[in-house]
Amino acid sequence: MPETETVTPSVTHRTILPLLTQASGSERMFPTLTPAQMKRIAVHGRARPIQPGEVLIDAGAQVVPFFVVTRGQVDAVLPSGNTETLITTHGPGQFTGEVNMLSGRPALARSRVSESGEVIELDREHFLTLVQTDSELSELFMRAFILRRVELIAHGLGDVVLVGSNYCSATLRVKEFLTRNGHPYSYIGLDRDADVQVLLDRFHIGDNDVPVLICRGEVVLRSPSNEQIAECLGFNETINQSQIRDVIVVGAGPAGLAAAVYAASEGLDVLVLETSAPGGQAGSSSKIENYLGFPTGISGQALAGRAFTQSQKFGAHVLIAKNAKQLACDRQPYAVEIDGGMRVPARTVILATGATYRKPPLKNLSQFEGTGVYYGATFMEAQLCRGEEVIVVGGGNSAGQAAVFLAQTTKRVHILVRSGGLTGSMSRYLIRRIEQNPAIDLRTQTEIVGLEGNDHLEAVTWQDNKTGAVETHNIRHVFLMTGAVPSTQWLDGCVALDDKGFIKTGLDLSLDDLAAAHWPMPRPPHLLETSLPGVFAVGDVRAGNVKRVASAVGEGSIAISFVHRVLHG
Ligand SMILES: Cc1cc2nc3c(=O)[nH]c(=O)nc-3n(C[C@H](O)[C@H](O)[C@H](O)COP(=O)(O)OP(=O)(O)OC[C@H]3O[C@@H](n4cnc5c(N)ncnc54)[C@H](O)[C@@H]3O)c2cc1C
């Protein structure tokens, strides 16, 4: 068991935040365990006395044990300099921790004894064993941890302060990165708070340094990359680069996360690499309504957060903001080279890199990405364009969902499609909702031909290809939902691709493909196996995939059964 620190930080000011303690459903967020449940937990840990003032877990601690209070009281507080905010108090039968307990990331809050008594202490390893073997407790902890994290996010309570501007694309990128990684932060907008601008000027923090991210109240990062943020917040555990993994999954969208959950739960040593944040394209969807088991829909963010936590529960290693740069496919074991120089070997590889957004050929498009041009319609973007007119470009389901969602909070939504209508490209239920919504205008055979603005998009010009008429409108927000291209450039000829760059697998690989790839096995490729034995492709990146969350999840999980065959065949 790790030794715990006994320090009493000098706290000069203490605020009490009753929100978490009084939140609705607090019994699920802070449940009281039964004596029988506590007995089952005690088997995995040790009982020990606690004294007032003793810090059981400090904010930022890398090693985070799990505590159940049997007697006395433990406060959870958020420290900031010499001040502390009381989040909640754990009494007998209650337990410490939140999502970081599973992910192995540093603690966000400090747990300090406020009344002497006794606790049961489990280190993370024993806690994970308990979670994997006791389904009743696993469900109870998981629910409590997720609800606690959701509450922290809702109140902007965490160890990160972001200072930026909503008119700055780097600020929006950092906001998106933190949000999609489910990390709570507080935000100070320069657009509204002139005092902060004065402060930045005094510290010679110029426009190019914005946004500024204050990490754990200690480190100040100027215009940081996602990788720097991940490093500062301890998102990634240190990994052993010489260890040969059973399977490396590249990409943590729905397909990659499903592969990670099934691989880890079936005892495989799995490493997942993700360029940005878990969830992939699905993470940017405001509401997925056709995923089995969620009759009222689920946001992509919530689905991704749950899947990520689930993969952690089973012990998958997920590296965030780590881009796979190259696949070393001329030897076995294979190796995946990661940006920054790491190289990790693996017996099998699952390619789940999905696709990226297709962009119209507008010369100044990148100038407005994040400052008026968006590729996803989540609550974050909806807040930015509340009460204004917006344009949604595209005729597929993602465009339809975005239009219906944005119509709830904006003045008017113009859907622009190049084709003559939506039939054939969009689900019938969405077409009906669009037709019935007076706030949505459908403009067929129409495309954007110009964007104008300085720091932010101010006007859009579109052309009606039926009549040739060109119109300019003062519209400040455009949502491009025009499909995607596969993320396969980095594979550099390792696997056979179709003419659009998607990865060919299984029966789609012709004899010519296999001959060209020097397929070395007497057996044909398995379902989902690429032209390289033991390398699989799943989800949107795979040729023939139907581009849905359910199919990505299905393929990710199926691939694991073939990984077993390759490993043990
Ligand atoms: C706005 C929107 C709404 C949608 N709504 C729905 C819906 O309602 N229902 C539905 O069924 N489908 C929906 N879809 C489609 C669905 O989201 C996709 O089919 C699904 O996300 C595909 O999952 P995937 O894991 O294969 O790929 P992706 O989701 O594209 O994930 C791939 C991941 O791989 C990562 N990656 C890429 N290259 C690398 C690399 N070199 N190294 C490391 N990581 C890498 C990416 O960062 C990404 O996170 C929607 C899509 C969008 C964009």
Task: Output the keywords.
alpha/beta; 569 residues; disordered N terminus; binds flavin-adenine dinucleotide; 6-stranded mixed beta sheet; 7-stranded mixed beta sheet
Fold and architecture overview:
- The protein is α/β, with parallel strands linked by helices and 569 residues long.
- 28% of the residues lie in helices and 26% in strands.
- The strands form 6 sheets. Strands 11, 12, 13, 14, 15, 16 and 27 form a 7-stranded mixed beta sheet that branches.
- Helix 5 packs across helix 6.
- The chain binds flavin-adenine dinucleotide (FAD).
- Residues 250-256, 273-276, 280-282, 284-285, 288-290, 323-324, 352-355, 376, 397-398, 401, 487, 490, 539-541, 547-550, 552 line the site of flavin-adenine dinucleotide (FAD).
- The site of flavin-adenine dinucleotide (FAD) has 39 residues, from helix 10, strand 12, helix 13 and helix 16.
Total helical elements:
16
The shape is: globular
Helix content: 25-40%
Oligomeric state of the chains in view:
single chain
Report the count of strand segments. Answer: 27
N/C terminus separation: 40 Å
> Which structural class matches the secondary elements?
alpha/beta
Q: In a few lines, what is going on in this structure?
A:
The chain has 569 residues and is an alpha/beta fold.
List the helices and strands and how they pair.
Layout: E1 13-16, H1 18-22, H2 26-29, H3 35-42, E2 46-50, E3 55-57, E4 66-80, E5 83-90, H4 100-103, E6 110-122, H5 124-133, H6 135-154, E7 160-164, H7 169-180, E8 186-189, H8 194-202, E9 212-215, E10 219-222, H9 226-232, E11 245-250, H10 254-265, E12 270-274, H11 300-313, E13 317-320, E14 324-328, E15 334-338, E16 343-351, E17 355-357, E18 373-374, H12 379-384, E19 389-393, H13 397-407, E20 412-416, H14 428-436, E21 440-443, E22 446-453, E23 457-464, E24 470-473, E25 478-480, E26 484-486, H15 511-516, E27 535-537, H16 549-568
Parallel strand pairs: 1-5, 7-8, 11-12, 11-16, 12-13, 16-27, 18-25, 19-20, 19-25, 20-21
Antiparallel strand pairs: 2-6, 3-6, 4-5, 4-6, 7-9, 9-10, 14-15, 15-16, 17-26, 22-23, 23-24
Helix pairs in contact: 5-6, 10-11, 10-16, 13-14
Bound molecules: flavin-adenine dinucleotide.
Flavin-adenine dinucleotide binds near residues 251, 252, 281 and 323.
